[in-house]
Design a protein that fits this description.
The complex is a heterodimer of chains A (442) and B (284). Chain A is of the alpha/beta class. Chain A has one domain: Alkaline Phosphatase, subunit A (3-Layer(aba) Sandwich), CATH 3.40.720.10. Helix content of chain A is 32%, strand content 15%. The longest helix of chain A has 21 residues. Chain B is built from 14 helices and 2 strands. Chain B is globular and about 65 Å long. Chain B is mainly alpha-helical and 284 residues long. Chain B has 2 domains: 43 residues, no CATH class; 238 residues, no CATH class. Classes of the chains: A alpha/beta (442), B mainly alpha (284). At the A-B interface, α3, α5 and α6 of A face α3, α6, α7, α11 and α12 of B.
């Protein structure tokens, strides 16, 4: 805040009597306070969220916002033809044909934007936290905020699971380690920390558990008055519950039919199937990462060769989204599960630029306009939000900021996006003045 | 400084009434009289994430032996000129392992196992400014991540570079072994019930546990350096190398061949249980 603004605020605050802090909390008049969210007629019915992450920056005009088909490397445009979808007048790229048929269960958001473009990690952080990094505070990820606001939706399950590598962007920031995630990098291996050590027999695991329980109990009995010890012992016992067969069986994808597993497709699809099982077990927020660089070398970072194999990625994404939406619907869970597809930024319509990265025909970075997808969650679906210009370079109408996108997710989950969290004494609204996309709540 | 005797100073402190008085918990301190709040005894505290990690490695005698923190950006420099944050030998030297790219070829599995424990105990891999107050709240994941990860694969593992292997080898009786073990891990002598339980665990096969002549402690050759760099991490071979390394890390340090395997397993379980007791975390 500039000094002049501050003085003006002080003046107006004094005029309103807000400086009498013993009567009125100063936060009520603070210019940092997020504006109140306008009342919306619809309330989201979601109790959980599956957040599909296309790490690397998925190209909007090759996926959810197709434009004129390029005729060759010198001609800017979509790399693939566009096809009609279940939403009249809204098209997707041809490799999203299964999702196209189910698009009436979705809302395509085509006008996402931010201003971080050069660095993947910084943009990833922006889309996960909804804020630029600050010198003095570490902002929590959206998954950690949901975990903090709602907790788990069942006993003996964690609130927040990441199928992907650990990262600060996915972390709890100032909310603290208890709102962090459980992660797994391989659906077969199960989550880190919860799975039993490799190569240890059941007999040994039981022996260890018995010995540990005895020592823990003795120590707790010797120190009955110490709250921190009591908390730690209680937490350790809750941890034992997390490794109970009840929750660990969620990771056993083999218990699903071969037909269903086949419908979900490759490793990313299997992660999506796991995500469905996790939210059914009571996990609130599951982030599923799709940047397995062994599929096309680069994942969604489609510089150079990555671009040539991009359709393989899109096809896997398509298969997984379609299988997930149908599976949730068949299990009567789609209205209660918000499915989000997000990425750190989009890509420009040109090929081969900038030449130092993309001389081989790939695409560069673009954060002025890119796409995301929302599905299920009891929203008013079957619409495309926002439009972009002729080649998807700039937003033509209805921009949706990252805070707006987050506010929409929170709202769908019944969280007030303007509510304040506390970093020590400092109030930090859940979103940085984000407004839920009103069209989805009418 | 002539005539300065550090040991004398330390002895004076350790023998002082204040140092020797019983530890208090926060509640007792809060409810004590004002005059007593000042010096009524040491306040019990939980080990910080860094203290926990350093204590675990110091206790086992093992070197951290983690990957260099960050990749050689181009894969062209000789090791001594690498641009990275070095090989950490103490917990405070760790930094984030994240590249925010989710690529298996960029993972650092040995480092990750340590930083997972540290993060669950309140260390942050992202720190724009140092935090003077840590989040010390208890979470169900703390004991799980420690117990199922690092404590199993490395600290309790009786490998050739473990001080516990030496301890196990040189003991003359299960009773003596367990007493030394409890002193090493928890800094106290065992209770009678503990003695009974652990002697029952360690006695069978004790006399026939040694398979060869006395071992020497061998530093285990590090294999955490490999040919994967930023420049080549997109080739499929890079992913394969890292996935193999991950499996190796998950299997843990190679167990010593100097001790009979069934007895060795029981000894490892005993060590593991002691270091996973909350008693290890709270000092004094």
């Amino acid at each position: 805040m500039k000094r002049r603004q501050y003085l003006q605020w002080m003046g107006s605050a004094a005029a309103l009597g807000c400086l009498n802090t013993s009567v009125v909390k100063p936060a009520l008049c603070s210019p940092f306070q997020a504006p109140k969210i306008a009342p919306l007629s619809r309330v989201g019915t979601a109790d959980s969220c599956i957040f599909l992450w296309l790490g690397g920056g998925a190209c909007q005009i090759d996926t959810f916002d197709p434009k004129r088909l390029s005729t060759g490397r010198k001609d800017p445009g979509s790399a693939y033809a566009a096809i009609d979808t279940a939403i009249p007048g809204v098209q997707l790229c041809q490799h999203l044909s299964r999702t196209a048929k189910l698009l009436d269960r979705c809302a395509v958001v085509r006008s996402l934007h931010h201003n971080v473009v050069d660095e993947h990690a910084a943009a990833t952080n922006r889309v996960h936290t909804g804020r630029p990094p600050a010198d003095s505070t570490v902002y929590p990820s959206i998954g950690s905020i949901v975990s903090h606001q709602l907790g788990a939706n069942g006993d003996g399950v964690p609130a927040y699971v990441v199928a992907g590598y650990p990262s600060a962007s996915r972390g709890p920031g100032f909310l603290g380690a208890q709102y962090s995630y459980v992660y797994l990098t391989d659906t077969e291996l199960g989550p880190s920390g919860l799975r039993k050590p490799t190569g240890l027999s059941d007999a040994r695991n039981n022996r260890r558990a018995d010995l540990a329980a005895r020592l823990r109990g003795d120590f707790a009995r010797r120190n009955p008055e110490d709250e921190r010890i009591r908390d730690y012992v209680a937490a350790a016992e809750a941890g034992v519950k997390l490794t109970s067969p009840k929750f660990m069986s969620v990771f056993d994808l083999k218990s699903e039919s071969d037909t269903l597993r086949g419908a979900y497709g490759g490793e990313f699809g299997q992660r999506c199937l796991l995500a469905r099982r996790l939210v059914e077990s009571g996990v609130r927020f599951v982030e599923v990462s799709f940047n397995l660089n062994f599929i096309n070398g680069t994942g969604w970072m489609t510089h150079n060769e990555g671009q040539l194999q991009q359709h393989v990625l899109i096809d896997q994404l398509d298969q997984a989204i379609a299988a997930l939406l149908l599976d949730l619907e068949n299990r009567n869970r789609l209205d209660r599960t918000l499915v989000v597809v997000a990425t750190e930024f989009g890509r420009p319509p040109e090929f081969g630029r900038p030449p130092e990265f993309d001389g081989g025909g790939g695409r560069g970075h673009q954060s002025t306009a890119f796409s995301g997808l929302l599905a299920g969650g009891g929203l008013a679906l079957g619409q495309a939000i926002g439009t972009t210009d002729e080649l998807g370079r700039k937003i033509a109408s209805r921009p949706v900021s990252i805070p707006d996108f987050h506010a929409t997710i929170h709202r769908a989950l019944g969280i007030d996006p303007s509510e304040e969290l506390y970093d020590g004494d400092r109030p930090v609204p859940i979103t940085d003045r984000g407004q839920p996309i009103a069209e989805l709540f009418t | 400084m002539a005539g300065y005797d550090l040991k004398h100073a330390a002895r004076s402190i350790f023998l002082s009434q204040v140092y020797q008085s019983a530890a208090l918990n926060q509640k007792e301190i809060a409810s004590a009289k004002r005059s007593k709040q000042l010096a009524n005894g040491p306040a019990r505290r939980r080990l910080s994430a860094e203290q926990l990690i350093d204590s675990l490695f110091a206790m086992s005698g093992k070197a951290m032996d983690l990957e260099p923190m960050s990749l050689d950006p181009e894969g062209r420099r000789p090791p001594e000129q690498f641009l990275h944050l070095g090989f950490p030998s103490r917990a405070w030297q760790l930094a984030s392992t994240s590249t925010d790219r989710d690529r298996p070829a960029l993972m650092l599995p040995a480092l990750q196992q340590v930083s997972d424990v540290m993060m669950s105990f309140g260390w942050r891999d992202s720190r724009p400014t140092p935090l003077s107050v840590r989040d010390e709240s208890a979470s169900p994941l703390q004991s799980l991540i420690l117990g199922n990860g690092l404590a199993s694969t490395r600290i309790a593992r009786l490998s050739d570079d473990s001080l516990f292997t030496e301890l196990a080898w040189s003991a003359t009786a299960p009773r003596e072994l367990f007493e030394n073990l409890t002193l090493t891990v928890l800094g106290r002598t065992p209770t009678e019930e503990e003695r009974m339980a652990y002697e029952a665990l360690l006695s069978p096969g004790f006399s026939s546990r040694r398979l060869h002549r006395r071992p020497t402690l061998n530093p285990v050759a590090s294999h955490k350096r490999n040919a994967v760099s930023w420049a080549n991490h997109l080739v499929p071979e890079a992913t394969r190398i890292k996935l193999l390394l991950e499996q190796e890390i998950l299997r843990g340090d190679i167990p010593t061949q100097w001790l009979e395997s069934d007895w060795r397993d029981r000894m490892e379980d005993a060590i593991w249980s002691l270091m996973n007791s909350p008693e290890f975390l709270f000092v004094p």
